[in-house]
From TrEMBL:
Gene3D superfamilies: Spore Coat Polysaccharide Biosynthesis Protein SpsA, Chain A
Biological-process GO terms, alphabetical: chondroitin sulfate proteoglycan biosynthetic process
Underlying gene: Csgalnact1
Assigned keywords, A-Z: Coiled coil, Glycoprotein, Golgi apparatus, Membrane, Metal-binding, Signal-anchor, Transferase, Transmembrane, Transmembrane helix
Glycoprotein recorded as keyword: yes
An annotated GO cellular component: Golgi cisterna membrane
Protein name, entry field: Hexosyltransferase
Source organism: Pheucticus melanocephalus (Black-headed grosbeak)
Length: 530
């Protein structure tokens, strides 16, 4: 009885505890599963709110509205992106129409023959755009792209880069590999049978290579002109190659016979008999004895020292059995342009190569060949960049004696510089000189006439070959800038005078000579004390 009564009394308490537990579980479940809004948690239905069912319907309706708004927002963003993409597409089509590909190159791998033909056509168009077959009109003297010359061992360059060496071995691997590839390709082209001659062809090697020049036009490619020894004396083989930023293409393979090509060296002169004697020594050795296909025209101004100059000419004529010279005397003030113009027009023979020269120039027989090879009537004129010698008394001041002239003519940055601002020494055919109009005879005295003629050629369709050459030197001499010169001529003269003395480092040693001597004296005193 007691147990039954106790159980009956405990039963309501147990039921109450179960009800409380069930309510707690329900509350926890509702807290965990109730959906949340974008920014805050949605509240549960409260005691005084509508029923639980109505509360959940309101929550679902609110959530559905949020999703609907989100979908509308996404659709707007997609529409904006489509509009922007359409605008970019129209802009790209407009640019393609404005700048079409000149050859419409389509590298379609499914049609390799067409792709190869298009690429080949493009490369050949690069050859046509570059100055390979003919010159192009240029606005100023600064627009001309200069060549650089090279042999098997050396490169002679204007843009010296970090090394600052006017001549050097091609130490950069890309330049070395490039020139080796070009020479090998040229040799292979020379040894390729032409299919016409039945005679056994000569086998060419790299040792037959004489010299080459090359230049790169940044938007087209690199042009190479290589000269090889020919089948006989004074005969050469010339190979023209072009790299249109791709495989090298052979442009020309021709025989060049220079055996009968005469050079008329024209020298304007006034006084300076001692310099003329030195010039004639060089002319006799290189022009008469080694080359032999040369004529000399001296245009002399005034009468002072004229007899001495004529005597030097006559003595050379007798001793070397040389009759190919002309002496013209003008009774007027010296004008370099007038002298060269008179000398060029005085010639009455066949078309001839003119070499405009000065009395303080030293040239080699190799340069005379370069003069012939780089000129072509109606096609090309040659403007070599010569190597200008520094003052020997400064260069060799620390030596016991100054070396002989031949020993001084070394292309190094300590001995001289490429005279890239000078245009006076030039080779061209007489016909081109006459057709271009010759010199401006209104220019008197020193300087200006050479630049004027150079610009005439640049403005024409002739190709101007501008390259440093290893066989043409300007010998140092003290320069006098006369008061009679115009301000522009006087400025040019003084700039040339400053450039002629010594290198930057050598001039610096002279400026700081006292400081250096003081330092050496201190070093001697210090060594004595120790």
């Amino acid at each position: 009885m007691m147990l039954r009564r106790g159980f009956i009394l405990f039963l309501p308490r147990l039921v109450g505890l179960l009800v409380v537990a069930c309510c707690s579980v329900s509350i926890v479940y509702m807290l965990a599963c109730t959906p949340k809004g974008d920014n805050q948690q949605l509240a549960l239905p409260r005691v005084h709110s509508p029923t639980v069912k109505e509360g959940y319907e309101a929550i679902l309706q609110e959530r559905e509205e949020q999703h609907r708004n989100y979908i509308i927002s996404l659709k707007k963003q997609i529409a904006q992106l489509k509009a922007e993409l359409q605008g970019r597409t129209e802009q790209l089509k407009s640019m393609q129409n404005q700048y079409p590909d000149p050859l419409d190159i389509q590298l379609n791998h499914s049609k390799p023959e067409k792709a190869q033909a298009n690429l080949l056509a493009f490369l050949r168009s690069q050859v046509d755009k570059a100055e390979v077959h003919s010159g192009v009109k240029l606005s100023t003297e600064y627009a001309a792209v200069p060549f650089e010359s090279f042999t098997l061992q050396k490169v002679y360059q204007l843009e010296t880069g970090l090394t600052r060496h006017p001549e050097e071995k091609p130490v950069r691997k890309d330049k070395r590999d490039e020139l080796i590839e070009v020479i090998e390709l040229a040799v292979g082209s020379l040894n390729k049978p032409d299919g016409v001659s039945k005679a056994k062809p000569r086998l060419y090697t790299a040792s037959d290579f004489v010299e080459g020049i090359y230049r790169t036009e940044k938007n087209k490619g690199t042009l190479y002109e290589l000269t090889f020894k020919g089948d006989a004396k004074h005969q050469f083989k010339k190979i023209v190659l072009f790299r249109p930023f791709g495989p090298v293409m052979k442009v020309k393979n021709e025989n060049v016979n220079m055996a009968d090509t005469l050079i008329n060296v024209i020298v304007p002169l006034a006084k300076r008999a001692s310099k003329f004697r030195q010039f004639m020594q060089n002319f006799r050795e290189m022009g008469i004895q080694q080359d032999g296909r040369i004529h000399l025209t001296v245009v002399y101004f005034g009468k002072e020292q004229m007899n001495e100059v004529k005597s030097i000419l006559e003595n050379t004529s007798k001793s070397a059995n040389f009759k190919n010279f002309t002496f013209i005397q003008l009774n007027e003030e010296f004008s370099r342009g007038k002298g060269l113009d008179v000398g060029a027009r005085f010639w009455k023979g066949n078309n001839v190569v003119l070499f405009f020269c000065d009395v303080d120039i030293y040239f080699t027989a190799e340069f005379l060949n370069s003069c012939r090879l780089n000129t072509q009537p109606g096609k090309k004129v040659f403007y070599p960049v010569l190597f200008s010698q520094y003052n020997p008394s400064i260069i060799y001041g620390h030596h016991d004696s100054i070396p002989s002239l031949e020993q001084q003519l070394i292309i190094k940055k300590e001995t001289g510089f490429w005279r890239d601002f000078g245009f006076g020494m030039t080779c061209q055919y007489r016909s081109d000189f006459i057709n271009i109009g010759g010199f401006d005879l209104d220019i008197k005295g020193w300087g200006g006439e050479d630049v004027h003629l150079y610009r005439k050629y640049l403005h024409s369709n002739l190709m101007v070959i501008r390259t440093p050459v290893r066989g043409l030197f300007h010998l140092w001499h003290e320069k006098q800038c006369l008061d009679e010169l115009t301000p522009e001529q006087y400025k040019m003269c003084m700039q040339s005078k400053a450039m002629n003395e010594a290198s930057h480092g050598q001039l610096g040693m002279l400026v700081f000579k006292q400081e250096i001597e003081t330092h050496l004296q201190k070093q001697k005193l210090s060594s004595k004390k120790t």
